[in-house]
Specification:
Length: 143
Amino acid sequence: MDEYTEQIRSSGRRLTRQRKLVLEILEASQEHLDADMIYDRARARDPNIGLATIYRSLGLLKEMGLVQEHRLGENHGHFETTQSTPHHHFTCLKCGRVVEFEAPQVMDAARTLCKSEGLQVTEVHLHLSGYCASCREDGFACE
Ligand SMILES: [Zn+2]
Ligand SMILES: [Zn+2]
């Protein structure tokens, strides 16, 4: 938690109890939680917490760069803490399974764009969808 506390202090914002709780829930989870799932877990530890507070905390944590929101093929966002290694997502259209993967080539492309076009890329995210190994068609083979 120390690194976060430091980041929050330097950004001039206070880490309120609720924001800390939301951050801890995201840190402890290996999944990509949406706001309702975060709310359920938060309520188990603080029965007085409201859904509006969860949304507010997520918004602020996002602004502070501690949390990222991804739209993973559904109409609501999924949240995770910002990680040092940028990664991308695959979502299974049938079972909803999310697979994370790294793609350094994408970062290379962003770097090339910076050099050739002078673009300052602030966010890189690749989202693939399709069918996971258990859901794909029988006889499917990778090309
Ligand atoms: Zn699947
Ligand atoms: Zn992820």
